[in-house]
Description:
The chain is of the alpha/beta class.
Amino acid sequence: MAGVHQQDRWAQWLLQRRDGGDPDVRERGAAMLARCRDGVLDGAAIAPGDVVLDVGSGDGLIGLAALDRVGEGGQVIFSDISADLLDECRRHAAAGGVPDRCRFVMASADDLRGIADESVDVVTTRSVLIYVDRKQEAFAEFYRVLRPGGRLSIFEPINSFAAEAGHHLFGFDLTPVADLVTKLRQAYASVPPDQDPMLNFDERDLLRWARTAGFSQLALDYRAELDVPEPLPTGDWEVLKNTAPNPLAPTFAEAAAQTLTEPERDRLDSHVRAILAAGTPGRKTLATAYLRAVHP
Ligand SMILES: C[S@@+](CC[C@H](N)C(=O)[O-])C[C@H]1O[C@@H](n2cnc3c(N)ncnc32)[C@H](O)[C@@H]1O
C-alpha cells in the first residue's frame, strides 16, 4: 500500500510550521509578506513581456504576482530545490489559468544549469540566499542567466544582526527564566555561527557578491530595528509555541521537548503565559536588506 506523502521541510514550513496552522497568525504574516513581495517586484522594474526567473520560489509569493506584471506576452520561471513547492506553484498556476506562461525548474540557486545563458530579463529572490552556502556562486548564476540590461532584485533578512543582539523568543523579558533559555538555545544552534549560511553574512557581503559577479548600478536599502515594540500575531502561547522561526529550526515546543525537563517546560510556559496575559507586546529586533542591481 502506498504511504502518505510527507512533504519536505521547506514545504512543511511554508505551508504550516511558520504560522502553526493558525489562520490569524497566517493573516498577519500575509500582510508583511505582501509588502515584501511588492518591494522585490518594484525593485525589479518588470515590463510587460519580460521573462522573470524567481529563484527559490517557495509557494509562489513572488512568481505568481510577477505573472500579473509580465502580462500575456511574458513568462515566469519558478525554480526551487523543493519538488513539493514546485508542485504547489504548478497547482496555483493551473488554478489561475496561466500554466502556459510558467516554467518550473528544479534547481539550486548556485547551480541554475537548466536555465540558458542570457535568457531572462529579471531575476528575483526573497529569503533564499540565507539557506545557500555558496552565495558567490549563486550571484554568478544570476549574472549568467540575465540578458545584458537585465535586473536583479533581492530581499534577504540579515539574521546575524538579531543574533548578535541576543534577540530571543519575540523579545520577551526572559531574565527570570534565563537558565531555561540557555538550554533552549541549544536546540537552535546546530553549527557554529561562522559556518551557518543564515548567520555568516551581512548586507555588505550582499553588495560585494553582486559586484564581484559583475553587476552594476547596485542599490541596497538596509533597515534595522532593535527592540521595537510590536503586537504579536496572537496572544495564545499554545499557538505561538507551535510556530518555527525558519524552515530548518524546530518549533518552540519541539525545542523545549528536546532540551527541557517537564517541570522546566511548565516553568517556561507559566512565565510566557503571564507575559501574554499582561498584554505585553513582543519586541522586534530584525534587519533586512533589499538589493537591486543591473547586468551591464
Ligand atoms: C523562506 S522560503 C522563501 C520562499 C519564497 N521565495 C517566498 O518569498 O515566499 C525559502 C525557499 O528557498 C528554497 N531553497 C532553499 N535552499 C535553496 C537553494 N539552495 N536553492 C534554491 N532554493 C532554495 C526553499 O525550498 C524555499 O522555497
